[in-house]
Automatic annotation (TrEMBL):
Domain of life: Bacteria
Provenance organism: Methylorubrum populi (strain ATCC BAA-705 / NCIMB 13946 / BJ001)
InterPro entries, A to Z: DNA_brk_join_enz, DUF6538, Integrase-like_cat_sf, Integrase_catalytic, Integrase_recombinase_N, Tyrosine_recombinase_XerCD
Residue stretches making up the Tyr recombinase domain: 262-448
Protein name per UniProt: Integrase family protein
Metal-binding recorded as keyword: no
Length: 456
């Protein structure tokens, strides 16, 4: 049973009537850090000290770990920001006026600590002497105070955590970062404090009206996507009790509507024939055939491993709104490709090592280079259809997926089976919620009902 906050004195000691955190330094580091690390909490309330001590304990332990590694670890500014945010969170959860008052005293005491000692004393005629502090110390203390009091929380300070926890694909994460980049650039240009508290509905409207010029060259659909990502971030902040409302709701309606025109379409049989008869490298020929005879998206094909091509089945990773892996029978016309690409390879080896994952911190999908290579080849063989004002062509690798679905439908395959094979949500409560999905035999009949056009 946990100790009540009124009696728990772990990591705590009193100094001058106030509580402070104290942590023993390992013997081998005492030459660098001393025997103990201490930090005042600026409160005489043991309950408040127990509320705010854990963040400080974490920071001091991180300092010990960084010293042991000989690394700088997090910057002092990062550590202070986390400490301030922890105090702001405690302040937001406070239940009584006394708790808020005690925490406010702790915040002000910590801000005084950050000011440090005066660098000079200023004496003006007829006035009391005033201490003068280093400008950088004044700025640091002011930032800490505003952050801990919940008055000026930087928009970007939680964004990396939001993006990491979202679990989205690399492309969506890149959209998150671009949206925030545009927002911060706009704040700087318009002298708007880049703080969560500074954003009202009016501020959001101003940004939305300026976004087309700020992101010149981006189409209306992309701009709406950026506003949607900001809205989702604000909803996450609201759930974290860091803001009270999503100021971006409906903001996309202020943008020009997306240009209407022809929708992206499947390949025709003639286009599939031209693509498969062209002089593409083997890796592209293999990709195109798997795409045409599974209806799978490019990214999941490129991401296949040898172990994902066993027992006559492809096992594709989940995409979009899928919650689990999806097994698709291997079409007889693909058996040679699978045997050739899996021969003498280990289960964890890539099926398409020609397109390895991106290196470093790149958020591009693994299929990025494969997509570019296919686009160049597609245009080379004269398979193209563009519309003025639209960034993407009406036909692309995804058109193989559309072609597969069209051919399966024309072969009288049930819509629910086609949906299960390509990973679409199946319609209706019975099939969508209660059915465990089609048997492999049913899926195999669907896949084998699709045949490539004669290549002559």
């Amino acid at each position: 049973m946990p100790r009540p906050s009124s009696s728990d004195k772990r990591y705590l000691e009193q100094n001058g009537g106030k509580w402070r955190v104290t942590i023993a330094v390992p013997r081998d580091l005492q030459g660098k850090l001393g025997t103990r690390l201490k930090r005042p909490l600026h409160t005489d309330s043991l309950a408040v000290a127990n509320q705010i001590k854990w963040q400080v304990i974490g920071e001091l332990k991180a300092e010990i770990d960084a010293t042991r590694r000989g690394a700088g670890g997090a910057t002092k500014g990062d550590a202070l920001a986390r400490e301030a945010l922890a105090m702001a969170a405690q302040r937001a959860r406070a239940q009584t006026h006394e708790e808020v008052s005690d925490l406010d005293h702790a915040v002000m005491g910590r801000a005084d600590d950050l000011l440090g000692r005066p660098v000079a004393i200023e004496q003006l005629p007829g006035e009391d002497a005033e201490p003068v502090y280093a400008p950088e110390r004044i700025a640091q203390a002011a930032q800490f105070r505003s952050l801990a009091m919940g008055e000026a929380t930087p928009v970007a300070i939680h964004h990396d955590r939001f993006v990491t926890l979202s679990g989205n694909k690399a492309r969506t994460k890149a959209d998150d970062h671009r949206a925030l980049k545009y927002l911060l650039a706009w704040c700087e240009a318009n002298r708007v404090p880049p703080n969560i508290e500074a954003f009202t509905r009016k501020t959001a409207v101003r940004f939305t009206n300026d976004l087309p010029k700020l992101a010149e060259g981006r189409d209306a659909t992309t701009l709406r996507k950026y506003l949607n990502r900001l809205s989702i971030y604000w909803k996450w902040l609201e759930a974290q009790e860091l803001t009270t409302t999503d100021v971006w709701v409906g903001a996309y309606k202020l943008l020009p509507p997306p240009a209407k025109g022809p929708e992206e379409r499947p390949f025709t049989d003639d286009e599939v024939t031209r693509l498969l008869k062209g002089d593409a490298p083997q890796k592209l020929h293999d990709l195109m055939r798997i795409g045409a005879l599974t209806g799978a998206r490019l990214d999941v094909i490129v991401d296949l491993k040898v172990k994902d091509c066993a027992a006559g089945l492809f096992v594709f990773k989940p995409q979009k709104k899928e919650t689990k892996e999806r097994a698709v029978p291997i079409h007889p016309a693909l058996v040679e490709i699978v045997e050739r690409r899996t021969k003498d390879k280990a289960p964890e080896d890539d099926l398409f090592p020609e397109w390895p994952p991106s290196k470093g911190t790149s958020e591009r999908e693994r299929s990025f280079k494969a997509s570019n290579a296919f686009t160049l080849y597609r245009r080379k063989v004269g398979v193209d259809e563009t519309v003025p004002g639209k960034r993407r062509a009406l036909i692309n690798f995804h058109s193989f997926r559309r072609w597969f679905i069209t051919k399966a439908e024309q072969a009288d395959q049930p819509e629910s089976i086609i949906a299960a094979v390509v990973g679409h949500k199946r319609k209706g409560m019975t099939l969508g919620r209660y059915s465990a999905g089609p048997l492999v035999a049913q899926a195999r009949r669907c896949v084998e009902a699709v045949a490539l056009p004669p290549l002559g």
